[in-house]
Amino acid sequence: MSRASAPSQTFLLASLATPGAICLGLFFLAPLAIVGVESLQDGGGGFSRLFAQPAFWSGLRNTIVLGITAGLISVAVGSLVAWHLAQIGERMRTALMFVIALPLTFSGLVVAYGFILGFGRAGFFTLTLEKLFGVDPAGFAAFVYSPQGLAFVYSYYLIPRVVMLMVPVLVNFDRNQLAAAESLGAGRLRAIADVLVPQVFPAALVAFCLVAAVAIGAYGTALALVGSQVNILPLQLFTAVSDVNADYARTAALAMILTLLCSLAMAVGEAVAVRSEVGKGH
């Protein structure tokens, strides 16, 4: 490339990046800055009032439990599904990927209503278990309205995200390595643990961080499913924003804490992804 064309190339790249930079500034950085300034009013008194509430700490604990549990369930199930998809033909894999991705198009209200119809007190599966095994409908349905139950519900639309992240990794995995390990005397499980797991673990960890961040910040499904019965930070924030007499500094502080939790989860995932790419380069 000549020296004369270098400035024009730079100008072209800057022009292409400008629309994205404007959207990022207007719809993310500017609102985040406004909320951050609001949370620091009264010398950070909003954070003090927030930390003084026992409900915040129990909500923080439940939110972390929800994110970790939903992430683990989604990665475990999604990785197995991705492993199966990676072993079938490309045409069938594409068709199944389309079906698996359909839950991503549903709103939180639709997902919550579907689980109520299936696992609520009068749900199909609940009444079926009552007739077959004498399961108490109230006790069984109560699970759905707990942080662990929410993790189960969230997994419905988190598993497709894991599948879409893991399928390319597993498709490109050389299965001859497993055959070579087994030919040297390793059992099937030992070969998977020593050969497959180390190679796909970074991708699985990235997927876990992504879905955990989504679970931590989501509120639509939880609001439609449990209302205020489960104390998690997104529902606390929704309640505070809906209150006409809300303490805006405390509400902004809660929003910043929730943003920090999601950002930390995503940062860990990005760090793992970058480190994995650097390792492949070497």
Question: Which key terms come to mind for this protein?
Answer:
13 helices, MetI-like fold, 282 residues, mainly alpha
Number of helices: 13
CATH topology of the largest domain: MetI-like fold
Q: Which CATH C-level class of the largest domain is it?
A: Mainly Alpha
Radius of gyration: 23 Å
Judged by helices, strands and strand pairing, the structural class is mainly alpha
Order of helical and strand elements: HHHHHHHHHHHHH
Mean of residue pLDDT values: 88
Instruction: Provide the β-strand percentage band.
Output: under 5%
Number of strands: 0
- Which shape, going by the Cα principal axes? globular
Uncertain stretches: none
CATH superfamily of the largest domain: MetI-like
Annotated CATH architecture of the largest domain = Orthogonal Bundle
Q: Please estimate the helix content.
A: over 70%
Number of domains: 2
**Largest beta-sheet details:** none
Span of the ends, CA to CA = 28 Å
Write the layout of secondary structure elements.
Blueprint: H1 5-39, H2 41-51, H3 54-86, H4 90-100, H5 108-119, H6 124-133, H7 137-142, H8 147-171, H9 176-183, H10 188-217, H11 220-226, H12 233-242, H13 248-281
Helix pairs in contact: 1-13, 2-13, 3-8, 3-10, 5-11, 8-10, 9-10, 10-13, 12-13
Explain how this protein is built.
Helix 2 (41-51) crosses helix 13 (248-281). Helix content is 82%, strand content 0%. The longest helix has 35 residues, at 5-39. It has 13 helices and no strands. The protein is mainly α and 282 residues long. It folds into two domains: 1-39; 55-281, MetI-like (MetI-like fold).
